[in-house]
Design goal:
With 55 residues, this protein is an all-alpha fold. The chain has two helices and no strands.
Length: 55
Amino acid sequence: MSDNETSVFHSPSDARKFLGQIARVWVVWLTLLAILAFAVSPWNWVTGGGLLVLL
């Protein structure tokens, strides 16, 4: 094993790719949580019903 093996990132582009993947995973998770919170929250059913009545 070379000294390079101890480092997770061999080059800046690797680090950028890694951070990009983490960011993508976070965006997906936050989106799912937001949808879940929206679906579960009773206030959203009330506002949704109000909007339907207005339409």
